[in-house]
Design a protein that fits this description.
Elements (H helix, E strand, L loop, with lengths): L4 E7 L2 E7 L2 H16 L2 H4 L3 H5 L10 H9 L9 E2 H10 L6 H13 L3 E7 L2 E6 L15
Antiparallel strand pairs: 1-2, 3-5, 4-5
């Protein structure tokens, strides 16, 4: 029986398995895969989010900062967004927080006057950034 070289890695919700007769063949296959399929933005989810209707949010942000980024997006934030819409957008950007975490942060941001709830959508409160009170959206007035 001939010995084969195998390699597997997680991808999306499953595993990719590679098998080759030689180590060199396996390395070439992995290099081709990395350069094409695995490295494309549509596979990593960053550019694909816009086609799903969600803005892209960079990694490494806190949940509150990710919410600010979502609600600060010029295209996506044209209308108020519900907690469910915000949660789905976070998940599309690989931010997996519980509903309670997102809900708690929305309420906290509301109490800090960072957000407003101007209306309801489908019997759920919808949120927008309060541009008049949010520090990053205020103009700084300099007095002489």
């Amino acid at each position: 029986m001939e010995k084969k070289f195998e390699y597997e890695r997680p991808w999306k919700q499953g595993m990719l398995r590679f098998q080759a007769d030689t180590l060199e063949e396996l390395e070439q296959t992995l290099k081709r895969i990395d350069e094409s399929v695995l490295a494309t933005p549509s596979q990593t989810g960053t550019d694909n989010n816009r086609t799903l209707g969600y803005p892209s949010v960079p990694g490494g942000l806190t949940c509150a900062d990710a919410i600010r980024k979502l609600l600060g997006d010029a295209i996506w934030a044209k209308e108020p967004r519900t907690e469910n819409e915000i949660g789905a957008a976070l998940k599309a950007n690989a931010y997996h927080y519980s509903r309670g975490t997102v809900s708690g942060l929305l309420i906290q941001m509301l109490h800090k006057n960072e957000l407003r709830r101007p209306t309801k959508k489908n019997n759920s409160w919808a949120y927008v950034i309060d541009r008049s009170k949010s520090p990053e959206h205020q103009e700084i007035l300099v007095t002489a």
